[in-house]
Amino acid sequence: MKKPFYITTTLPYVNASPHMGHALEFIRADIIARWKKSQDCEVFFNTGTDEHGQKLFDAAAKAGKEVKAYVDESAENFRKLLPLLGMTEDIHFIRTTDPHHEKAARKFWEMVDENGYIYKKNYKARYCVGCEEAKTESELADGKCPIHDTVPQIIEEENYFFKLSSFGEKLLELYDARSHNIVPNFRMNEMREFIKDGLEDFSISRLKTKMAWGIPVPNDPDHVMYVWFDALINYISTLGWPENVKTFEKFWKNGTPTQYCGKDNTRFQSVMWQAMLMAAGLPPTHTVVVNGFVTREGGIKMSKSLDNVVDPVDIVSEYGTDALRYFVSREVSPFEDSSFTMERFKSAYNTSLANGLGNLVSRVMKMAATHLGKPVRIPEVHDGNIPADYEKALDSFDIQAAANIIWRHVADANRLIQEKAPFKLVKTDKTRAVEIIRDLCARLYTIGVLLEPILPKTSEIIKRLARENKMPETSLFLRKE
Questions:
Q1: Which is the catalytic residue, given 148, 371, 382, 470?
Q2: Could you confirm whether 304 is annotated as catalytic?
Q3: Catalytic residue at 286?
Q4: Range of the domain at 421
Q5: Is residue 374 part of a domain?
Q6: CA 173 to chain centre
Q7: Does pLDDT of 124 surpass 80?
Q8: At what angle do helices 20-38 and 67-84 cross, to 10 degrees?
């Protein structure tokens, strides 16, 4: 029986077009989903769009559109991005405006309320629309949100609150028991310190008269749910919860549900969401994997709100899907901030793809097609040739380490060609030259196998060429001048 594995991205807001930060998270989650499938797991892979909240309400008004029409159009842009990024075809795509999600969110609210963790009070707070969260004085820099460089709005109204303050010790116990894990570990330490500083109850509703675009609060039509409370519930509503008990129990209760998120999202995923699950009497997320930011020059976060984004569609159009997948896998840190510039992207493309992998495939398969009478006999299942450190890297979500292992194999094969020169040796010692070429074909096939979760299209081409003993009609990656 296949072991169940659940993985999800966070749901991006649809108040602007997709950018590199989204592409990075989508691709990394896809790599892990593909890796788990190759390990004979039954995978449930979730992504989608977050479609409530003040930012979307404001963005629709600015665009002069009715808000539902605006989010429908924007959600479709994200849905269309998935095949461009080479995402697995059986991905689940949820929208927080889906009727079932809204029904599940109301049911979740009712469960938390019945368990005594929701109350109503008047409050006043500094609210950053860009972050969709209240800010304390210590979180501001010169009175502004340090991420969006904007002065928060002052909100004063009666809202419903979630008793997050009741869960400090329970969350620490959850962490200590490793029932909830945060990767990398230093993010876990950050959350421990955040909890130890004291958790404050947070607002989970907005007055409908001030923000009408949200899910109505059960039994109180004057309020709608706060966007974060509503959106987090997608991780279980996508499984058909609460009606689909079988799927929920298989992938969430009895599985190891895994969530990707950005570092600015960690407290929502590993503190607020885990407390909410406990409040509803549901099992926690097993693992949250935290990405660093994709930054521009000067270390500035790439963000829609800051209007400094790079469109992944443009990159795919010029360089191809697997070129982008390569860059976010190997050239971007798996857990720390990394800068993105087109100059850096182009240099990595030419060095590692065009000159490295692409050149290797062309050289090996040209020698094979010329000097081997038939394809090298290579077993379809290559489990015995999967390096242990490669498996360990992907199992620990260190995709960069796994990619580095692959390119070490690429470098070793290119070095072998340079040192042994089988294309010359064939003139004086054909038997030995053919042995080297056969070895190179086997090495190339192994590289193709290792590339399966990371560069799926390139992987399939390499394996096919090796099986058929053919050289590529054109280079896999044409050099860009």
A1: 148
A2: yes
A3: no
A4: 344-468
A5: yes
A6: 27
A7: no
A8: 50
